[in-house]
Amino acid sequence: MGVSIKQVHSVFVGEVAGVDLARPLAREDVAAITEGMNRYAVLVFRDQNITDQQQIAFTRHFGELEVKEKPGHIRKSGESRLGANISDLSNLTKDGKVISADDRVWFFKLGDRLWHSDSSYAVVPAKYSALSARIIPSWGANTEFADMRAAYDALDARTKAEVEGLICEHSLLYSRSAVGFADFTPEEIDNFRPVRQRLVRTHPETGRKSLFLSAHAGAIVGWTIPEARAFLRDLTEHATQREFVYSHPWRQYDLVMWDNRATMHRARRFDRNEVRDVRRTTLAGDAPTVEQAAA
Asked: Which residue from 111, 153, 195, 218 has the fewest beta carbons nearer than 10 Å?
């Protein structure tokens, strides 16, 4: 039958049919999915009961897996319950129990409920992310996505000219401080030193421009911090208006893949006493958006 994609939002997001992610993809299926990602930026694959290794193999059809020079979390070495090349975005400890409400890892994870782009705090930000839902809670826990291409297109000419050359500083220190988390060790502070990213990106495949916003962005080079943060908040409010946002209601065994070069996303609330087991694979980005030598 082959891959088919149906648009499910007015400006982006496609639902994919005709593919089994537990099996290697044919070349034409990879091409169709890549084309779909370039067009829709977010793709939904339903009923994909896959293993971690199958998820990793699927993701590798589209590039190299991300390997960060420094960690993007506060979990210590050996604390993860999953193997290499896959990130645990669940609310579970290594032994499979629900994380305590006063665990600093849980506090840190609450930053995922802010609008962000994966690995924008890394010198080379991420390309695609693929999130697989293994166990979902009984209510809540939607993931919302915002189309940053459409948000850029909707800016007035004056604002487009203003943002064109701006460089922002991104760090997990900024996003976590926004939810009141400040319990960082000296090593973590060093790991999370800010990196510079362009505020306007051009997609390497489509040539479309988009706003590169994120809760990780906490400064604009050459601006005062208060003015920068007020401006970034205004832009984020613009970019997350209802017409640019899709809210995904998870079903068990959904896999959703998104292009971090064209979208932002955020997690939504759920009953923290219920298990939410979701696992992410992430593809390495193309290149730095700006040289870091002057940072």
From this structure: 153
Q: Is residue 293 part of a domain?
A: no
Round to whole Å and give the CA distance between 263 and 43: 12
- In this prediction the pTM is 0.96
Domain housing 14: 4-282
Is residue 70 over pLDDT 90?
no
Compute the half-sphere exposure of residue 97: CA atoms within 13 Å on the CB side of its CA.
6
CB atoms within 10 A of CB 103: 13
Q: Is residue 294 part of a domain?
A: no
Structure tokens at 263: 């979208």
Under a CB-based contact definition with an 8 Å cutoff, are residues 173 and 184 in contact?
Answer: yes
Q: How many domains does the chain have?
A: 1
Q: What sign has the CA pseudo-torsion 279, 121, 210, 225?
A: positive
140-193 residue pLDDT tens: 999 999 999 999 999 999 999 999 999 999 999 999 999 999 999 999 999 999
Q: What's the Rg (C-alpha) of the chain?
A: 18
